[in-house]
């Protein structure tokens, strides 16, 4: 049977990327041949421009025409291969997009299943009850804050004469403190440092030393 139908091939099937690579390699080979033909055509054109009409010029012209036909053939083949490569690249992009779409769909399915499991465990009634309890606690807290921050009754009418008298007394105290600080004696020692009121003149320092001796 193998002789009639041939043995089953075990070689790996070509992939799209390998096919594109093979076509690109063929295009590069054709480009090399076209560069060689263009160089020959340039040489023939230069020789034809310097030659006079005659059998020699006619022979060079025939060679140039043959090279030009070959170049056109290779250019057509290159265009065909470039079209094939482009079509395969488009197919590859479509394949990649399809793979990405399938991955996205699978991820969305998995996420939907997980969300259903998680939300299925949630009790809406318990959440609403918890919200009501939190609202009640917030009301209690506000009541406590209002009670703590309540201001006591303060007489609205204040006697301006009493305020003026109190302000004048404060001014006298400030003046006394200023005198004490200027003399170098603290205000709370002013009464102790001053001489007694029953003495007309303060004692002389020499007499104070003699009495002490």
Please count the beta strands (DSSP E, at least 2 residues each).
Answer: 0
Give the low-pLDDT segments.
none
Computed CA radius of gyration, to the nearest angstrom: 57 Å
Q: What is the number of helices?
A: 7
How is the biggest beta sheet arranged?
A: none
Strand content: under 5%
Order of helices and strands: HHHHHHH
What class, by secondary structure content? mainly alpha
Helix content: over 70%
Average pLDDT value? 78
Give the oligomer, counting copies of the same chain as homo and different chains as hetero.
single chain
How far apart, in Å, are the first and last alpha carbons? 152 Å
**Apparent shape:** elongated
Textual characterization of the structure:
The protein contains seven helices and no strands. It is mainly alpha-helical and about 210 residues long. It has a domain at about 15-150. Helix 2 runs antiparallel to helix 3. The radius of gyration is 57 Å and the shape is elongated.
């Amino acid at each position: 049977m193998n002789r009639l139908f041939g043995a089953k091939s075990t070689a790996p099937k070509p992939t799209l990327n390998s096919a594109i690579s093979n076509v690109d390699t063929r295009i590069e080979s054709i480009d090399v041949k076209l560069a060689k033909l263009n160089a020959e055509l340039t040489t023939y054109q230069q020789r034809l421009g310097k030659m006079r009409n005659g059998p020699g010029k006619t022979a060079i012209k025939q060679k140039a025409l043959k090279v030009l036909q070959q170049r056109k053939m290779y250019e057509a083949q290159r265009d065909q291969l470039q079209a094939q490569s482009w079509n395969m690249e488009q197919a590859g992009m479509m394949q990649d997009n399809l793979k990405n779409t399938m991955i996205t769909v699978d991820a969305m399915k998995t996420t939907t299943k997980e969300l259903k499991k998680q939300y299925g465990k949630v009790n809406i009634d318990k959440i609403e009850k918890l919200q009501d309890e939190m609202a009640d606690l917030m009301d209690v807290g506000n009541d406590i804050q209002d009670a703590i921050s309540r201001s006591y009754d303060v007489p609205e009418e204040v006697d301006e004469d009493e305020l003026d008298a109190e302000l004048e007394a404060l001014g006298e105290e400030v003046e006394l403190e200023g005198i004490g600080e200027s003399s170098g004696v603290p205000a709370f020692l002013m009464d102790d440092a001053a001489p007694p009121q029953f003495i007309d003149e303060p004692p002389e320092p020499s007499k104070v030393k003699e009495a002490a001796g």
